[in-house]
Amino acid sequence: MSTTSLVELRVLDGANLYFSRAAIKLTLDLTALMDAPAPEAKAFASALGLGSTRPGGIGSGFRQRFAIRVVGHVVRRLARESGIGRLGVRVRPESDVRRVVVAYPWVHEDRAKALGSAIAEVLDAFGRPDEELAQVITTAGERVRDEPPGNPPPTLRPKIPVVAITGTNGKTTTSRMIAHIGRAAGLHVGWSSTDGVYVDGELVKYGDYSGPSGAGTVLAHPGLQLAVTETARGGILRRGIGVAWNDVSVVTNISADHLGLGGIDTVDQLAEVKAVVTKITRPRGWCVVNGDDPRTFAMRLGSPAKCWVFSRDADSPSIRTVLDEGGRATTVLDGWITVLSGSDDPTPLLKVVDVPMTLAGLSRFNVENALAAASAALGLGLPKTAVVEGLSSFRPGPEHNPGRMNMYSVRDFTVVIDLAHNEAGLEALLEIMNGVRAPGGRLLLALGSPGDRADDMVTAMGEMGARVADRVVIGHKGDYLRGRDPRELDEVFRIGTRSVGVEDVPSFPSELEAANFLFDEAKAGDVVAVMALQDRASLDAWLRAEGATVDSPETLKSKVERAQH
């Protein structure tokens, strides 16, 4: 029987937004029930066995809540009819009041999918006589019971320690830093990220592997002793997390990004998705969270693991709270990255200025990334000496951290290549640009964004860039426009730039062409920055061909000191 209410049936192979194990997610369109007169809606609920209900007005939020109750009852009744027994059910409203999402765990895929189809079949029987509805339920239940069970969930059960990193900004950098520390400890390390899968520093698979396939690829590699997995929101929403647990979870921060996609419309909803990583951390492990971000800090309450908080402020209330709860903290104390616990003296690791990624302490975001990486490594039980060696030898250039705050010197000016894919990332980039600008130098910025970013975010980045930089252009990411017309994206950026009085904003088909334009305009002391994703490798090759050199930690420190004085 064809259905009209079933919009999507999605199989989630691991921990997800709804459950800490594999689940089926159904998106349902309940227009018939939502738009029916109240007596008809109530009669349908009564026929299903829900006698005491108030449907509310047609198309209202009250009617949607009524529909949620009806759907939950349908799922549980069909589960009983098909012999499944007790079944956890989550039903959530969508922003469209005529739609809801229902999720339930599964242990046999084919039978679980059959249940999903049966749920839609019963909902599609709205308006039929009570006797027909009862027969539909009975027949659907029998069909689910007779369905061959199918495969169990493919969720991996790791045999080596796993660190899972999520957040809005800093995931890739923090993942790379933790992996680097692991190698400094003498371990064979594999890690997955938006850039690919690496084993002991060598790229083995190129592409975005921040989802379940990345974790699976790493854990399938023989001989590894530590897995570090970057875990993005998209993978959690589309397939769930590919591993049954992690030993250490890290959440860097939560800010607006990818809103309006996959049913995630608010920052709080985004935080709920990211928190899934902390909920599958082993009780004897550590949940590492940013104490300066309230949404991130709250995630410790839903994790079975102990909390290890990090904060740049040694007097942060979050640190006091976690230490009182018996956890640990990593912070900056008298200029030193320092570990605190409630029962021991502070343990200094190394000075912030001796961590090259912090750009002599200039980059607040990378100070936080270093604190997070140190916390995770120590939470794994790696020695303090390895943490110090790893943090002090991890470089901000393309060798260790390609595409993230890579800085070059060429013809007496500075070039910065950075992803900066959202407002928080652009804020960090502008902070760095200002921090290395020579006296009298200008800031020249190539803006850019994937095509699926919300208009308000793109406009905000245009406004932010034009307010701070002396010259802004747009460099498109052709492979990441995701069906959007670049001329439309130009206009959205320019709405932001015009709001601060900047009208002249040239646009270029690629990041590389935008960089060429700014390169020709640059003078001694200037800082040129490109928000780069697609052309990162070609930008690096082009800069080197132009005589650019990657800034060493010593060069960066001298630029910071020059800018400050």
From TrEMBL:
Residues 403-532 form the Mur ligase C-terminal domain. InterPro entries: Mur-like_cat_sf, Mur_ligase_C, Mur_ligase_C_dom_sf, Mur_ligase_cen. Residues 165-377 form the Mur ligase central domain. Keywords: Ligase. It comes from the Bacteria. One of its GO terms (molecular function) is ligase activity. PANTHER family: CYANOPHYCIN SYNTHETASE (PTHR23135:SF18), MUR LIGASE FAMILY MEMBER (PTHR23135). This is Mur ligase family protein. It comes from Kribbella deserti.
